[in-house]
Amino acid sequence: MSRSRQVRAEDNKELDTFNLHRGMSPELSAARPVLRRTHSELLIAESSNQQKMLMATLSKKERAAIQKANTQADLRRAKARERMARRRARIKALPLDEQLEYQDKARRARAKYREENRRYLAVASWGYRKRKYTEMEEAVAQRTPYEDYLLKSTIRQRKKERKVNTEERRHRLAAEQDSDLPDSSEIPTSDSE
Hints:
Residues 157-193 are annotated as: Disordered. By secondary structure, the chain is mainly α. The chain has a domain at 3-93. The chain is built from six helices and two strands; from the N terminus they run H-H-E-E-H-H-H-H. It has helices at 3-17, 26-31, 48-57, 60-93, 96-142, 145-180, and strands at residues 36-38, 41-43. A two-stranded antiparallel ribbon has the order 1-2. A hairpin with a 2-residue loop joins strand 1 (36-38) and strand 2. The chain is elongated, with a radius of gyration of 33 Å. It starts with a helix and ends in a 13-residue tail after the last helix.
């Protein structure tokens, strides 16, 4: 997950934690999708004036809840940054062979996570395909013989049209290529040179 997406997910979680989506004023309810924080910026509106106007429509309680959520998100991100800095410093203090071993372990863990994720997605997509295939089979079973005949004749007709269109396009391209070639009279011969 990218850093900005991760930050956004944290902010969404934080806002949900404070139950801002319950008992909101209509203004806040409309503004909720953009009441998100990335680092120290409140992404409410395009300009600071619009931000002020929007914040003015909120109740004191709602403003306090937003502020609290933002402060908590900032603190959590600051702690995470400190943790990462301490971990990097600890790794740099290790001997080179241990550093390389640690990096290799981290690389393997990432590869394992990617593989698990890929496998999960493959299974999920197979489930979706299987469901769609079952639905299609059910739809085919429910068709009357006349509907079946109509569908097949439509498919045949479309195939014919496609074939005709392809041939026409091929002839047109061949004609264009012929017209692009210079006339034999325009091609200079060795005698004229």
